Amino acid sequence: MNEFEIIKHYFTADSGRKDVIMGPGDDCALLQVPAQTLLAVSTDTLVSGVHFFADMEPSALGHKALAVNLSDLAAMGADPRWVSLALTLPAVDEVWIKGFCAGFFELAEYYNVALVGGDMTRGPLSITVTVHGTLPEGKGLRRNGARIGDGIYVTGTLGDAALGLKAALGEARVPAAHLEFVRNKLEHPHPRILAGQALRDIASSALDISDGLAGDLGHIVTASGVRAQLELEQLPLSEAMLASVSREQAWQLALTGGDDYELCFTVPESHRGLLDTALSHCGVKFTRIGRLVPGEPGLELLADGGPCELDLHGWDHFRSRP
Fold it and tell me: Would residue 64 count as lying in a domain?
């Protein structure tokens, strides 16, 4: 099959969305943006050998390629609507393409997201996804709204995807009973769309945890001009994590591992009761892990009643490594 046959056969399904006036097949997609809404847009690229193993199951890769982008919409509290996909393939492999599409479109259908365009070319395997969502005017969870006295929260458990990666690389021994769990955390992240929407009128700031809690929370404290105190003993850790590594190693993975795609957010004390109600309706577990205090923007780590020192360097594509 040539490029255009592949696109027509695999990537032009009708989503049924009435706000898609023109989808794949023309020079541009034409989309109907509702009145009195803001458009939220985010783009991510996944590169073979950098973001995923070259032999990763294609259906899992299709899922993850879309999920990590939807996680950005969740962090803004946006409603997902449309997605475009730029796919670079070393060769035409219809079995691989079929598997990739199965994972991609299953998640797209779950969140009622329409594929409205993109591109396909030949080269080293990489996937670039751009998602579009909408927000009511005046809404949107940003990084610069945190204030002194706000509590710091996260959804889910932290560090499991990083533990799954270490297990795959032979750098950590995970008990057999937990291997599938950590692998799914690495390959099948679940964007917290409903939680983000529920936090629109409650949280003062939010972002998704893609590069490690320490680095991502650092964006909030820098943008908001506040200081964060984290209680390491409050970090939510899974049974798999506790069964696989020491307490200090678990903290390190939770703070710097990345690929969690959970939400980190801050909430004023006055909204604490609203938070309990809103997220319980979403079925999302969340944990208070610290608070914002006066001082220079940065992170203070506390454990066993006193300060704690850990390496807080998270993922950075261009940071030199030994």
Answer: yes
**Dihedral angle over CA of 46, 37, 204, 76, nearest 10:** -10
CB 221 within 8 A of CB 227: yes
What pTM value is reported for the model? 0.91
Asked whether residue 143 is assigned to any structural domain, the reply reads no
264-274 pLDDT, tens digit per residue, is: 999 999 999 99
Return d(Cα 70, Cα 191) in angstroms, integer: 6
Annotated binding-site ranges for ATP? 118-119, 143, 210
Give tens-digit pLDDT for 187-216: 999 999 999 999 999 999 999 999 999 999
Number of structural domains the chain divides into: 2
- Which phi and psi (to 5°) does residue 312 adopt? -105, 15
Strand partners, 46: 127
Which parts are annotated binding residues? 27, 42-44, 51, 72, 118-119, 143, 208, 210-211, 259, 315
Task: Provide the annotated binding site for Mg(2+).
Answer: 27, 42-44, 72, 119, 208, 211
Do 252 and 170 reside in the same domain of the chain? yes
CA distances from 110 to 39, 77, 191, 198 (A): 21, 17, 11, 18
